[in-house]
């Protein structure tokens, strides 16, 4: 999958809800399930108004399920599942590590209270989800769309690939560490060390607050973003800022290469950028004190004039 960060990220499947109403042959309504693997290998079911109590892995290896108004109270509810639709449901705190190795999941209007949910998940869509304890959630996932998500917790989105995000509100550090092919729209990040060690990231129309933004990342682009980041945007290879505000940000761009930055606000300070162009109306201080850097490879324009 060859995705360029200057183009819209396209995932390799569509997000239509694939719920097999013609093939579902049985409905389960207002039941309480207990014990390990209560509905192991369940398939072609409509499960409504039910509660999964104590007992691990109640729906392990399930497929073709429509789950509506259910409560999951214990560990590992949906592992190795395929073609699952979950709506108006709750995943309680004790149901941690809830959805791993699952594909073709559609989830809408769900409250997730547990940690470590969504790992090794693929070809899925999450919308209108609140994750109140999202620590170590969404790891090693690929081809996933996130739409109107509120999440609180550190290490959200680690080592993911091919992710499209719209209207994410995230509070928690180390977001999307080590991820690849990420496209973000209309989102708010309150997180330090966001987008570290990434490759091919584009962020549109978003607010990012937190120090050390995007260190050690390749090919990252911010468009119409508002950024506050102490020592942010350092050690980046191929960094683009288009019409961005950079507020309360000092020592920016250290050891960055291939910079193309159009900043609309005063930058507190810039330190030892390696190559590219930086445009800003004002810069508090330009520091170029590394003798190993060729200063001719970097152009800094302040108020339309070369610094």
Automatic annotation (TrEMBL):
Top-rank taxon, per record: Bacteria
UniProt cross-references to Gene3D superfamilies, sorted A to Z: Single-stranded right-handed beta-helix, Pectin lyase-like (2.160.20.10)
Pfam families: DUF3737 (PF12541)
Listed name of the protein: Hydrogenase
Organism from which the protein derives: Secundilactobacillus silagei JCM 19001
Taxon lineage: Bacteria, Bacillati, Bacillota, Bacilli, Lactobacillales
